[in-house]
Amino acid sequence: MATLERALRDALGQFATGVTVVTVRVDGGVHGATVGSFTSVSLRPPLVLVSLNRASRLCALLPGAPFAVNVLGAHQRDTALHFANRGLPVHPDPRWTPGAALPWLDGAVARFSCEPWGALEAGDHVLYLGRVTQFEAAGGDPLVFHGGALGGLARPAGRGAWVGSLDGPEYGAWAPGGGAAFSPGAA
């Protein structure tokens, strides 16, 4: 990698991101990749975005296919490495949630099932938009990627950051705890 590209990558790595595994079922098999570029786009309609390297195997499988986004917990470092598959030792096979329509990983702190909404070409990546059709938020400490390393998130004590914010849990802006599943349009 050119020096300028490496420097840019290092600078971008200072932005901490959550770690997800994007999965798809194709011809009866489950395929997935560890993805740090995931974000919410819209609540009406419920849209999310994942960014995949054009050279990845998953990028070739995603066009037109329903997919799942599994937000990994701090305890799922081995799962992230398994799906990153960068010549590292093989990690134990992941466990899947039985009965899920799309491949949902057991132990994920949140999971989203998505129908394809659109795709945008973006340099060496493709941005895939998905319409959320079902989701579940089990909660827990997320796995975080920062500065080239995977780790947990150190949280300050108390709820101080959210006091007085309309985005805080006391205003109902967050889904109720306890792992309840929700399907948009089903309510």
Distance between the termini: 49 Å
Label the CATH architecture of the domain at 19-143: Roll
CATH homologous superfamily placement of the domain at 19-143: Electron Transport, Fmn-binding Protein, Chain A
Tell me the strand percentage band.
Answer: 35-45%
Order of helices and strands: HEEEEEHEHEEEEE
Structure write-up:
There is one protein chain. 12% of the residues lie in helices and 37% in strands. With 187 residues, it is mostly beta strands. The protein has a domain at 19-143: Pnp Oxidase, Chain A, CATH 2.30.110.10. The strands form 2 sheets. Strands 2, 3, 4, 5, 6, 7, 8 and 11 form an 8-stranded antiparallel sheet that branches. The protein has a 3-stranded antiparallel sheet with strand order 1-9-10, with no helix packed on it. The radius of gyration is 17 Å and the shape is globular. The relative contact order is 0.18. The model is unreliable at 175-183 (pLDDT under 50).
Précis, in short:
With 187 residues, the chain is mainly beta.
Summarize the helices and strands and which ones pair or pack.
Blueprint: H1 3-12, E1 17-18, E2 20-26, E3 29-35, E4 38-43, E5 46-53, H2 57-61, E6 67-71, H3 77-84, E7 110-122, E8 125-137, E9 144-146, E10 149-151, E11 181-182
Antiparallel strand pairs: 1-9, 2-3, 2-6, 4-5, 5-8, 6-7, 7-8, 8-11, 9-10
Tags for this entry?
single chain, mainly beta, 3 helices, Pnp Oxidase, Chain A, 187 residues, eight-stranded antiparallel beta sheet
